[in-house]
């Protein structure tokens, strides 16, 4: 019995031409091999020979034909059985038996975890600061401690644990912000972690019945169901000794969580004297052993009570929201909770506070909000005659507390600046301003936006275009006095007294971007000392306790020695503020001054244009979300090393128009469109100006001291 493959030629005529094609047959023959003769010429059957004088149909009666099908089926089964893997226990086995690409099994749908609440994003810098504060608690003691040093000697108040973002849990299932817990994820042993706020993660809120957990050891975040959480006091049940012996990350996590637990409980573990690296390793192992034994015995003597997080304050929330004002001049958020949907605004002309209905009904009493709505005008609880309203009690020393809270006392190389308590609303007066290197009157524009009454605004400026913009846009309310070098003490006495002195000397000779810079003591850098001179002339005399504020600005990219010298003369450290947080352009600047709350977080308002697309005219598309720092040079508009223009219009790259640059800086549209100035001249004016949202952020606390419209 043999298999024979026949190629049967089938000839036919097409358009009078003899055509030949072949048909393949696979035949199982029971006799001797049948010779295959190919007779492509002639009309006779090619399978008729002298030895076998019968046709193919006659031979089919002698043979048994079992299969006749196309040849590709044969090759398909051949490759399938020879090359497809069927090893079930092989390492790296493809899913679905032979892989998702070959298998008929349907790929499962990706699992998406639902998170309730709108997503909330914080800036990368803020999130990194929060993580750094959190890790500081364990990183400072994670290294080897010196002789006799007590582990757990750090206080959580000193390391800045972020409990200000504590949100009230509405599901009543425990595990609040800051608690130390054990969490269980699939494929892992019970792992120590800490409940954190969703703000710290930069993600969305956790759904009801779940918590955000930051794991010790690697610092990663996970959403865990409360059923998969245990308090740290269940150490005896959750601790896994084999994992502790095998995994260094687990050992590190146990060490870190017990460091925090010992800090909260006030427990100390003394180290042993060390002489070399071997002794150091043994000392650390001994500390771990002592802390584990302490945890196994129930965290005595305080027990689980000592592991509770300390009481937190709403510091960060208040810092961000306290001095944010809407277009109507009132606070954007409730004075108590820094939130609120429906708010009550104070009827006092010089008070800009507001209180949400929820806080009023909760703290003052049910129905208090409706009573306040009916009262017209309504004076808020900070302006009212009584000191206590329900649970709200106004402290007698609240102005001093507020100023100490916002004190700029970082990097204490200098004495803290003098603090001025807020002025009572009925005693506030309009502000008098001395602006040096005024530019296009950004300071006056911001004071008007904040609703602060300006009695006098004296400006020193030498650029004719800038003076023209100031005169036209502010209807002659600015008193221009010419070159700052010509202003004398006598002039200050005649024009003053002043409540606010502001200025920013030219940065050309200070910026390290300029290769021909002359530094602080030559060229335009020396103009800083003119600001310093006039600042001292404008200060109140001894015995004059009126509030006096000042602000000096300059570029961040300056030499270290220049920055140190400026700080030494002004006797304070600068605050670095980048306008990218509140505008569509990068513009990092140093600010020296004594304004309240200069170092508070910079938070964008709903009216700020954070993306370049929001600043463009109709029909134009932004290629970038934010542009680099716009300077007086025309090529500063181009972006990146390839010098791309930032805008697409009609399928072509284009520069920023003047009106669009004004929106980027926060100015009103056509603010610099005066005196038929060219586009380059208007860009020079904007390149030397301040970012309006940044100055609004710095000037906002002045509403507590001066009369408002």
UniProtKB/TrEMBL annotation:
One GO CC term on file: cytoplasm
SUPFAM superfamilies documented for this protein: FYVE/PHD zinc finger (SSF57903), S-adenosyl-L-methionine-dependent methyltransferases (SSF53335), Tudor/PWWP/MBT (SSF63748)
Reactions catalysed: a 2'-deoxycytidine in DNA + S-adenosyl-L-methionine = a 5-methyl-2'-deoxycytidine in DNA + S-adenosyl-L-homocysteine + H(+); L-cysteinyl-[protein] + S-adenosyl-L-methionine = S-methyl-L-cysteinyl-[protein] + S-adenosyl-L-homocysteine + H(+)
Subcellular location: Nucleus
Active-site residues annotated for this sequence: 507
GO biological process: methylation; negative regulation of DNA-templated transcription
rRNA processing in keyword set: no
Taxonomic placement: Eukaryota, Metazoa, Chordata, Craniata, Vertebrata
UniProt similarity note: Belongs to the class I-like SAM-binding methyltransferase superfamily. C5-methyltransferase family.
Keywords: DNA-binding, Membrane, Metal-binding, Methyltransferase, Nucleus, Repressor, S-adenosyl-L-methionine, Transferase, Transmembrane, Transmembrane helix, Zinc, Zinc-finger
Residue ranges of every copy of the PHD-type domain listed in the record: 278-411
Any one GO molecular-function label of the UniProt entry: DNA binding
Enzyme Commission number: 2.1.1.37
Stated name of the protein: DNA (cytosine-5-)-methyltransferase
Keyword Zinc-finger tagged: yes
Protein's gene: dnmt3ab
Occurrences of domain PWWP (ranges): 177-235
Transmembrane segments: 64-81
């Amino acid at each position: 019995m043999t298999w024979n493959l026949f190629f049967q030629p089938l000839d036919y005529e097409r358009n009078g031409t003899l055509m030949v094609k072949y048909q393949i047959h696979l035949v199982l023959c029971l006799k001797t091999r049948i010779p295959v003769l190919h007779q492509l010429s002639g009309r006779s059957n090619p399978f008729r020979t002298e030895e076998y004088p019968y046709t193919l149909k006659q031979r089919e009666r002698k043979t048994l034909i079992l299969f006749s099908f196309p040849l590709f089926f044969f090759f398909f089964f051949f490759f399938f059985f020879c090359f497809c893997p069927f090893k079930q226990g092989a390492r790296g086995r493809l899913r679905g038996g032979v892989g998702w690409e070959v298998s008929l099994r349907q790929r499962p749908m990706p699992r998406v975890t639902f998170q309730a609440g709108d997503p909330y994003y914080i800036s990368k810098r803020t999130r990194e600061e929060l993580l750094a504060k959190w890790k500081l608690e364990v990183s400072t003691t994670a290294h080897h401690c010196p002789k006799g040093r007590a582990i757990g000697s750090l206080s959580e108040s000193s390391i800045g644990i972020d409990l200000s973002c504590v949100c009230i849990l509405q599901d009543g299932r425990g595990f609040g912000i800051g608690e130390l817990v054990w969490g269980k994820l699939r494929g892992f042993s019970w792992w120590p972690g800490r409940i954190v706020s969703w703000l710290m993660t930069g993600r969305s809120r956790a759904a009801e019945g779940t918590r955000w957990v930051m794991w010790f050891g690697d610092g990663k975040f996970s959403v865990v169901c409360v059923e998969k959480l245990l308090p740290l006091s269940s150490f005896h049940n959750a601790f896994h000794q084999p994992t502790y012996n095998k995994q260094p990350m687990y050992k590190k996590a146990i060490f870190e969580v017990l460091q925090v637990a010992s800090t909260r409980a006030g427990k100390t573990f003394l180290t042993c004297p060390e002489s070399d690296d071997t002794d150091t390793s043994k000392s650390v192992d001994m500390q771990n052993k002592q802390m584990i034994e302490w945890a196994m015995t129930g965290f005595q003597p305080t027990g689980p009570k000592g592991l509770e997080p300390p009481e937190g304050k709403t510091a960060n929330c208040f810092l961000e929201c306290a001095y944010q004002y809407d277009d109507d001049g009132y606070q954007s958020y409730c004075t108590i909770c820094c939130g609120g949907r429906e708010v009550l605004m104070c009827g006092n002309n010089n008070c800009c506070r507001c209180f949400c209905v929820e806080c009023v009904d909760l703290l003052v009493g049910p129905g208090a909000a409706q009573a306040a709505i009916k009262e017209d005008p309504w004076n808020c609880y900070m302006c009212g005659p009584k000191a206590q309203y329900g649970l709200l009690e106004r402290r007698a020393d609240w102005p001093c507390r507020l100023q100490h809270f916002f004190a700029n006392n970082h990097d204490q190389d200098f004495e803290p600046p003098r603090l001025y308590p807020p002025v009572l609303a009925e005693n506030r007066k309009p502000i008098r301003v001395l602006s040096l290197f005024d530019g296009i009157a950004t300071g006056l524009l911001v004071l008007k936006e904040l609703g602060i009454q300006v009695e006098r605004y004296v400006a020193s400026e030498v650029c004719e275009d800038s003076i023209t913009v100031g005169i036209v846009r502010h209807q002659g309310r600015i008193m221009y006095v010419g070159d700052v070098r010509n202003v004398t003490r006598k002039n200050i006495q005649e024009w003053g007294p002043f409540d606010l002195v502001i200025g920013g000397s030219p940065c050309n000779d200070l910026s390290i971007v300029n290769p021909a810079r002359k530094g602080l003591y030559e060229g335009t850098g020396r103009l800083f000392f003119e600001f310093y001179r006039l600042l001292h002339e404008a200060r109140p005399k001894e015995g004059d306790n009126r509030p006096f504020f000042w602000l000096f600005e300059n570029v961040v990219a300056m030499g270290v020695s220049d920055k140190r010298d400026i700080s030494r003369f002004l006797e304070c450290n600068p605050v670095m503020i980048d306008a990218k947080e509140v505008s569509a352009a990068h513009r990092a600047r140093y600010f020296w001054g004594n304004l309240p709350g200069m170092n508070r977080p910079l938070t964008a308002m709903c009216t700020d244009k954070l993306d370049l697309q929001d600043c463009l005219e109709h029909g134009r598309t932004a290629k970038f979300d934010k542009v680099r720092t716009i300077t007086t040079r025309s090529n500063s508009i181009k972006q990146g090393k390839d010098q791309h223009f930032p805008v697409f219009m009609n399928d072509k790259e284009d520069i920023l128009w003047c009106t669009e640059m004004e929106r980027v800086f926060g100015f009103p549209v056509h603010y610099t469109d005066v005196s038929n100035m060219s586009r380059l001249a208007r860009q020079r004016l904007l390149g030397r100006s301040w970012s309006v949202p940044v100055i609004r952020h710095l000037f906002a606390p002045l509403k507590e001291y001066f009369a408002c419209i």
